[in-house]
Design a protein that fits this description.
This protein is of the alpha+beta class and 429 residues long. Among the domains are: 99 residues, Rossmann fold; 70 residues, Dna Ligase, domain 1 (2-Layer Sandwich), CATH 3.30.1490. The protein has 14 helices and 23 strands. The strands form six sheets. Strands 12, 15, 18, 19, 22 and 23 form a six-stranded antiparallel beta sheet that branches. It has a five-stranded parallel beta sheet with strand order 3-2-1-4-5, sandwiched between helices. A four-stranded antiparallel beta sheet has the order 6-9-7-8, with helices on both faces. β2, α2 and β3 form a beta-alpha-beta unit. It is globular and about 60 Å long. The N and C termini lie far apart (46 Å). It catalyses: 5-phospho-beta-D-ribosylamine + glycine + ATP = N(1)-(5-phospho-beta-D-ribosyl)glycinamide + ADP + phosphate + H(+). Belongs to the GARS family. This is Phosphoribosylamine--glycine ligase. GO terms for molecular function: phosphoribosylamine-glycine ligase activity.
């Protein structure tokens, strides 16, 4: 098959790395891709939201399968667009419809979906700017800490956990009245705070059938010990020790089954990946959020553990034949450490030359915010720059492999967390 993959981050490099291993892949194009995907596929200078350009490329290169990596084109309706065009309507696309993508595009929509389908989640209320007084009064009835979520897409940064009522009220006003997160915070969801350990569960579904992929735990904050600002993700570990067979059975029965059944019952077309952010609260799974694509950097820890043909999985999703796919998962551990530009997630400098040694056995280096400059050197181009995944028979070995490679990668002002996986390591001892 000729395959087109949309996106340019670490997730997409991991997808590309896995796709080109398949004998089912004839040629892989990545739009727009990064310096890492350029090494293994053909990068195409095409915006992920240029729907007409994407359609024309599909036709000119006889593309047989389209895979959408990030959420933005999904929320903007790329799947509907391609399926509505007579020339591309028969080409399988991996990604949900625009309505399905609203599960991530609107926190309020997803919370109401959970309520209708009896999916366990935290109590909440949603407010707009003209309900500011009612919202402030509601905050006074909440236990601390209080969670505030921008309703729309905010690049993983639209969630605030407020420790005091004063902080919650000030942030609530900033979000609604001063557009702290732009249009994303035109509505704000006020949510009950759940204590526990977070878990990322990934489901592939063709709208009827589903396969549960390896679970992962990610590390969102910039600082060690989970301190500082929220980021798109600083690292990930898979598998997760507390997500044993009994717990994952609860996740499947209480969360996955009612979610997939709810999509079908409500006629929400969904052929793609569903990322379920869970809180393990006293041994019970509660959904914090849905994302309508694979997570990043979790993908970089999850995909290396899938040993069955990945293109077969993608084709099963896109063609509605997922039931026939035999998912095989390695018992090995995978740990991912993200290296970022100094200053991220706030302002940072670009264009520093990266010294990147050859990969050592047991590790894979995935590119995220990288580019090749005019002098043909690899440079940092984004906030999250590289994701280094270590593999091993146990967590300790996987972490050792990841960090030994990280220590040999250098560029000016780079930063990474050194405590990725340490909490899981303590639990396992």
């Amino acid at each position: 098959m000729n395959i087109l993959l949309l996106g340019s981050g670490g997730r997409e490099h991991a997808f590309a790395w896995k796709i080109v291993q398949s004998p089912k892949c004839t040629q892989l194009f990545v739009a727009p891709g990064n310096a890492g995907t350029a090494d293994i596929a053909t990068n195409i200078s095409l915006s992920i939201t240029d729907f007409e350009g994407i359609k024309n490329f599909i036709l000119s290169e006889s593309i047989d399968l389209v895979v959408v990596g990030p959420e933005e084109p999904l929320v903007k309706g790329v799947v509907d667009y391609l399926l509505d065009q007579p020339e591309t309507s028969k080409i399988p696309v991996v990604g949900p419809s625009q309505l399905g993508a609203t599960l991530e595009g609107s926190k309020d929509f997803s919370k109401r979906f959970m309520q209708r389908n009896n999916v366990p989640t935290a109590a909440y209320e949603t407010f707009t700017a003209d309900q500011i007084e009612a919202g402030l009064a509601y905050l006074e009835t909440q236990n601390l800490p209080i969670v505030l979520k921008a309703d729309g897409l905010a690049a993983g940064k639209g969630v605030l956990i407020c420790q005091t009522l004063e902080e919650a009220k000030a942030s609530f006003k900033e979000m609604l009245l001063e557009q702290k997160f732009g249009a994303a915070s035109a509505k704000v969801v006020v949510e009950e705070f759940l204590y526990g350990i977070e878990l990322s569960v990934f489901v592939a579904t063709d709208g009827k059938n589903y396969k549960i992929l390896p679970e992962a735990k990610d590390y969102k904050r910039i600082g060690e010990g989970d301190t500082g600002l929220n980021t798109g993700g600083m690292g990930a570990v898979s598998p997760v020790i507390f997500a044993d067979e009994a717990y994952m059975k609860k996740v499947e029965e209480l969360v996955v089954k009612p979610t997939v059944a709810g999509l079908a019952k409500e006629n929400i077309p969904y052929k793609g990946f569903l990322f379920i952010g869970l809180m393990n609260y006293e041994g019970q799974p509660y959904v914090i959020e849905y994302n309508v694509r694979m997570g990043d950097p979790e993908t970089e820890a999850v995909l290396p553990r899938i040993t069955s043909d990945f293109v077969g999985l993608l084709h099963g999703i896109g063609t509605g034949t997922l039931e026939d796919y035999d998912l095989q998962i390695s018992p090995e551990y995978a740990t991912t450490v993200v290296m970022v530009s100094g200053g991220y997630p706030e302002s940072y400098e670009k264009g520093f030359e990266i010294s990147l040694p050859k990969e050592t056995p047991g590790t894979v280096v995935f590119h995220a915010g990288t580019a090749i400059n005019s002098a043909n050197h690899l440079v940092n181009q984004g906030g999250r720059v590289l994701a280094i995944t270590g593999m091993g028979a146990d967590l300790e070995t996987a972490l050792k492999n990841a960090f030994s490679t990280v220590e040999n990668i250098h560029w000016e002002k780079s930063y990474h967390r050194r405590d990725i996986g340490q909490d899981i390591l303590k639990l396992s001892k």
